[in-house]
Amino acid sequence: DTLSLHDALPICYTMAPRTQVYASWGEGFEARTAMNQPNARPYTNAPQALPVRKSRQVELGIKAQQDQMTWGTNLFRIERPEAGRVTDAATDTDSYVFDGKAVHQGAEAFVQTQHGAWTFNGSAMVLDAKREGSQSYDGKRPINVPEHTLKLSSSYRWALALPVTAQADVVHEGRRWVDPDNTVRLPSWTRVDVGLKAQQRVDGSNLTWRLGVTNLFDKRAWRESPTLTGHIYLFPMAERTVTGSLQVDF
Fold first, then answer.
1. How much is the pLDDT for 3?
2. Contact assessment for residue 154 and residue 170, using Cβ atoms and an 8 Å cutoff
3. Phi, psi dihedrals of residue 188, rounded to the nearest 5°
4. Given this model, what pLDDT does residue 151 score?
């Protein structure tokens, strides 16, 4: 069982019209309980609660708005304790304990802009993550953490009697490790989604029609590899999917 609580203190300074620099520092506490897992050796300390540990996050960034453009970038560092199974070689028994920490540090950037009927959005992140102070995985990369991400989106709105907006999205995620020993790694993947949205007003109600295609090019990939109850799962990317909907707001 896992419990996390966090709080942050932001400090902002306006260095120019519509331009702001900021710093954020926060701490939280992480609580874990040693719970035995199915089809695995029992823990010697189950079902005890582990001593509470602290997590920390620091972020430095800048945000600005210029004409029809909004942009920002930031640097961050997150330290979070990691818990897991540790084997005592002398007694050949397993315990569930805090085992060092995971350190995530990297950079993010985003931009939003509009030109007439066109709207563009983009964001990117590069991430250096590793385990520190671990008995077994020191220097290894945490599982299921992509090396980088990229998201691009563009839309065009036709000013017709029935306003219609077309949108296209590109989502890319880098490689990630599947196991804590860093022996199996999922390759990077890219997905393209497209859609149409139309809005109209009928008898005092707002109607929103949507038609979309997820994974337009029907790419095959392992999307992520989460861990649940001590087991690693591989989640595939959904095949090409067409959806349609009607939303009525009275």
1. 62
2. no
3. -70, 160
4. 98
- 65-82, pLDDT tens digit by residue? 988 899 999 999 999 999
User: Helix, strand or coil for residue 183?
Assistant: coil
Tokens for 27? 């701490």
**Block residue for tokens 């880098």:** 174
* Omega prior to 47 cis, within 30 of 0: yes
Three-class secondary structure assignment of 16-70 = ECCEEEEEEEEEEEEEEECCCCCCCCCECCCCCECCCEEEEEEEEEEEEEECCEE
Q: φ, ψ for residue 86 (rounded to 5)?
A: -125, 130
| 103-129 core/surface letters (b: 16 or more CB in 10 A; e: else) | bbebebebebeeeeeebebbebbebeb
* Residue 36 and residue 48 in contact, taking contact as beta carbons nearer than 8 Å: no
Q: What is the pLDDT of residue 169?
A: 98
pLDDT at 205: 87
Enter the pTM of the model: 0.86
Dist CA 155 CA 210 (whole Å) = 14
Cα(22)–Cα(203) distance, integer angstroms:
48
